[in-house]
Amino acid sequence: MSADAYKPGLEGVPATQSSISFVDGKQGILEYRGISIEELAAKSNFLETAYLLIWGVLPTQEELDEFEHEIRFHRRIKYRIRDMMKCFPESGHPMDALQASAAALGLFYSRRDLENPAYIRAAVVRLLAKIPTMVAAFQLMRKGNDPVQPRDDLGYADNCLYMLSEQKPDPLAARIFDVCLTLHAEHTINASTFSAMVTASTLTDPYAIIASAVGTLGGPLHGGANEEVIAMLEEIGSVENVRPFLQQRLQSKAKIMGFGHRVYKVKDPRAIILQGLAEQLFEKFGRDQYYDIAVELENVVAEELGHRGIYPNVDYYSGLVYRKLGIPTDLFTPVFAIARVAGWLAHWKEQIEQNRIFRPTQIYTGQHNVAYTPMAERL
Ligand code: SDX
């Protein structure tokens, strides 16, 4: 590639060939294994979607029951990992606790047997099962509580929401949370999935891979944006202040959190579904004071930046949904991670089936034949 053709951020550069998901950024289309996100959100659930992403087919009822049973069996986390988490500072961000805890799983399951389908399945089950429990455990321990144990009478999504919100979920709330997990499960080669693939390409263990991906997801330009959106809406404070706020942000060239996307140049199809979920929750449980501000900001950004393809992305309305579900703000990105583990694992499995270590090249802009300057002669 010539220096002229080079674009930072690997823009437009294919990193792999994959059959897991598809995005059309102009049409606003997202498909998992060829099935539209709208159909999966309406008819499927997260565990079934995770199975579809990882093994490439929708499970039979028997396969899904077996998958759920295995996950239920592995939901608890080792006491030693819980004791390790007790040493983490209460002020720490849950994404950092999750990254450390996910990596720690490798201490217990470090043997690598990547040729063995049973090893792959065991890692998939353990990570899908334990990631939610680890997020909840840290949240509760830093509040001085004993970690709530997953309940055997609740399904996967209900249990996640119960552990994160510390209350038995209303059926509508649990269903909406399940849809949120499906919406966040996979999205082709985003930064955290690319991170997972690069780590996977060295044939290391899946726990190190998930720890890499969690660390990448946490940044404010990626999964960390959902938390930033709420802070932004709180800063705006009123519908009347939306325009002045936006003008100030545009003048300072600062990014508007929850807007823009490397691929979507229309409203993210997931944002459309999440906005509908928010409205369902508001109808049953009362309106969120920031929703009207969010809608006004979306309208004004469309006026100012729509011509440049800058519209709401998945992180724009998700925070308003999670607030209404009773999830603490600093757990919004860990919720994203709970869902995206499915996509990261799907790409891990696909990567090791066709593996070659990632080793890109560069465009060198430095000097050559530079003489070594002795210390005494340095200024
Ligand atoms: C996710 O990739 C994925 O699929 C990610 C994700 C997934 O499911 O995995 O969809 C999840 O990460 C969603 C994105 C969450 N992040 C944010 O909401 C943070 C705010 N958004 C921006 O930082 C930005 O839009 C990105 C990071 C999402 C995309 O970055 P790009 O493609 O590198 O775009 P860019 O920063 O080069 O911007 C291009 C132009 C710039 O203007 P110029 O310098 O050319 O004049 O568009 C402008 C930008 O200033 N722009 C914005 C903007 N996003 C882009 N201007 C104001 N506000 C914004 N949000």
TrEMBL record:
It catalyses: oxaloacetate + acetyl-CoA + H2O = citrate + CoA + H(+). Gene3D superfamilies: Citrate Synthase, domain 1, Cytochrome P450-Terp, domain 2. This is Citrate synthase. The active site is at 261, 315. One of its GO terms (molecular function) is citrate synthase activity. It comes from the Bacteria. Belongs to the citrate synthase family. Pathway: Carbohydrate metabolism; tricarboxylic acid cycle. It comes from Neosynechococcus sphagnicola sy1. NCBIfam families: cit_synth_II, PRK14036.1. GO terms for cellular component: cytosol. It holds the Pfam family Citrate_synt. One of its GO terms (biological process) is carbohydrate metabolic process.
